[in-house]
């Protein structure tokens, strides 16, 4: 059974898209967009944070992005998460997580670019001061959640879920399948619920926001990881066995887990 892997973003480009063509002649555009979020903390102080997201657009959609988008452009992106790996010059394995765009809509301008699936997107006349950063996943856990408390007393649960996608190859008509792994972080009561209710193989619906953060490895080099900070977790099961938990906080603790393993994928 295929899973669900969906991302919705509204943000601004940090630079013009880079468009190139593969040896087979396929166009691909790469660019990053920033989403912003504002909230009041428990002391009533205004807080804000910005998250950057790598976007990849293929074929005609990539060409459209190259033609219409510029640094500072505001756009709507709908797509799926993809994690890929490569080997650096030192022979170390590296991971990066990108959003593979399926639809794009320019916002805030009369010159509107449109993605290849014809999505109208949000109202372009709306004054959007904050971005939109939402990920929706349905998949299965690769292992039991790891639950712990950080020095401030907050509870945090970390686990990975897999989503799968199936399609037929255009040339051979053979069935193809792709599996993506996603790192999930759940805080406080939501994290406690995940630790109590979820186990390896559990099927879950997760709704949250994308977060990319960095740390320094043992070799002194900077590392990056992208995870979904869960806001809603729905436990899916057979015979009508359901469980649900939702974060009641308007914001999330600023403290993050620091013991991130070098290997992002559980298997």
> Within the CATH hierarchy, at the fold level, what is the topology of the largest domain?
OB fold (Dihydrolipoamide Acetyltransferase, E2P)
Largest pleated sheet: 13 strands, mixed
- Which range best describes the helical content: under 10%, 10-25%, 25-40%, 40-55%, 55-70% or over 70%? under 10%
Architecture (CATH level 2) name of the largest domain: Beta Barrel
Return the string of H and E elements.
Answer: EEEEHEEEEEEHEEE
Q: Measure the end-to-end span.
A: 20 Å
Structural class: mainly beta
Helical region count?
2
Estimated radius of gyration: 19 Å
Multimer state: single chain
CATH class of the largest domain: Mainly Beta
CATH superfamily of the largest domain: Nucleic acid-binding proteins
Low-confidence stretches: 110-128, 239-243, 248-267
Number of strands: 13
Overall shape: it is globular
Let me know the average pLDDT: 80
Number of domains as seen in the coordinates: 2
Strand content: over 45%
Concise structural overview:
The chain is mainly beta.
Structure description:
With 267 residues, the chain is mainly beta. The protein has 2 domains: 4-124, OB fold (Dihydrolipoamide Acetyltransferase, E2P), CATH 2.40.50.140; 135-246, Nucleic acid-binding proteins (OB fold (Dihydrolipoamide Acetyltransferase, E2P)), CATH 2.40.50.140. 7% of the residues lie in helices and 54% in strands. The protein has helices spanning 59-68, 188-197; strands spanning 4-13, 18-21, 27-40, 46-58, 74-87, 93-107, 132-141, 146-149, 155-168, 175-187, 203-216, 222-236, 243-246. Strand 12 and strand 13 (243-246) form a beta hairpin. The longest helix is centred in the N-terminal third of the chain and has 10 residues, at 59-68.
């Amino acid at each position: 059974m295929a899973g669900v892997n969906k991302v919705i973003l509204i943000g601004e480009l940090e630079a013009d898209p880079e468009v190139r063509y593969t040896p087979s002649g396929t166009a691909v555009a790469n660019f990053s967009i920033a989403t912003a979020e504002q909230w009041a903390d428990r002391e009533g102080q205004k807080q804000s944070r910005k998250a950057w997201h790598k976007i990849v657009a293929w074929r005609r959609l990539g060409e459209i992005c190259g033609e219409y988008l510029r640094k500072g452009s505001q756009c709507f992106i709908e797509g799926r998460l993809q994690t890929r790996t490569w080997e650096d010059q030192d022979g170390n394995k590296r991971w990066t997580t990108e959003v593979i765009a399926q639809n794009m809509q320019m916002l805030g301008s009369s010159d509107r670019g449109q993605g290849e699936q014809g999505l109208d997107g949000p109202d372009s006349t709306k004054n959007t001061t904050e971005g939109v950063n939402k990920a929706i996943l349905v998949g299965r856990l690769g292992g039991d959640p790891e639950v712990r408390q950080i020095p401030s007393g907050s509870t945090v649960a970390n686990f990975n879920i897999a989503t799968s996608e199936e399609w037929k190859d255009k040339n051979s008509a053979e069935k193809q399948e792709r599996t993506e792994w996603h790192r999930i972080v759940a805080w406080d009561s939501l994290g406690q619920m995940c630790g109590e209710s979820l186990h390896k193989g559990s099927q879950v619906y997760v709704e949250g926001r994308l977060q990319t953060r960095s740390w320094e490895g043992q070799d002194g080099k900077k590392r990056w990881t992208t995870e979904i900070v869960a806001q809603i977790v729905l436990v899916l099961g057979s015979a009508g066995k359901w469980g649900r938990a939702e974060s009641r906080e308007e914001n999330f603790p600023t403290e993050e887990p620091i013991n991130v393993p070098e290997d992002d994928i559980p298997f």
